[in-house]
Amino acid sequence: MAIPELPSPGGLVLHPFRGVRYAVDDLAAVTSPPYDVIAREDVQSLLDSHPNNIVRLILPGTGEGRYDEARDTLRSWLDSGVLVSDDVPALYLYEQSGPDVLLRGLIGELGLRAPKERVILPHEDVMPGTVADRLALMRATESNLEPIFLLYDGAAATADLVSEVADTRAPLIEVHIGDGLTHRLWALTDPAEQDLVAADLRGHQAMIADGHHRYATYLALQRAEHDAGRGPGPWDYGLAMLVDSVAYPPNLHAIHRVIPGLSLEEAAARAKGAWQVHEYAAVDDALAALAEASPPSFVLAGNGPAHLLTDPDPVQIERAMPAARSAQWRSLVTSVLSEFLLPRVWGMRDDEESVRIVHHDPYAAIRMARAESGTAVIVPALNVDDVLTVAAGGERVPRKSTSFGPKPRTGLVLRTFSTP
């Protein structure tokens, strides 16, 4: 695989590559959401949807040999023609469209940059266990199975090219999936167009919208390969989709928490020492009140009446929030959640062992809480500008604070290190 040396720091690098794509009749049945938003109860339905569903690669079970199993499955699908490499290197234009949704981005090999270079800006911290899991999978399969999602602030020539291609050319694929969106993919194989994009991205920064753990995994793999003396190679790049947030503003959704074993009654009772707690017989009424409440506010729900938390004690908040953080960071509802509500009020950390997460859907979080005799914490969505401000200042919001969307569908285009 011919990988060029990365140029000196100066902006984003998105390199064309020979994508690996499915050659099956029912493309919708082999795709999935990104690995980290698939609910446990949905894994089996994806496995049942098609014998070649991508979830067999991105979530290869829990056994000791699961990473080798994913490697062997990928090799089998490549050998049998289930997956096929495209003939020429391309940048892939990917569009998701539906009611009130239109997102277009370019998928390619992203030149990796260390955070200190301020070219690719993270806005969330990562969990070491998740990075270790993704690294083991990436090493075993020698591939990037799903793109990360980045936002950058406007490159006019690229935006014009993206619009021209999407509006006038026939796509490689067009597929309608159960998420209610239409997914289309084009291949930009003209070197002149690829050069235009390369020149246009110089000087630009990008913020990671989704895929912090995968980007951290890219960097960990690159570091390990360089430490082993292997020099430039496919590990200097990672599969990514770049979206111009000026031309195609993304949606920003909330990520809710579920605390198994903490009863709703106990959670509300303990909150009364630090918050104003308002009881609602109907969950819908509590959620409507949350939408109108001043931040920071939360809804607690589960078995029993819902509770709206508002107006936390300012003295307790001030003591709980880290003094070294910016005022912008301390004002985020997820900062208040992770530094005050969870540890100070309920005596727990917002980590993978204690707290489960649910993307977007408050009712799904409430159902989970009821099934586990726990408490759902319904969290308002952050403001996009607040997230950008925190990231630009070199800070990171607490884990699982944001869910930008729509997220790229996994399985439409893959990258393998061995593709020439």
From TrEMBL:
Pfam families: DUF1015. It comes from Sphaerisporangium aureirubrum. This is DUF1015 family protein.
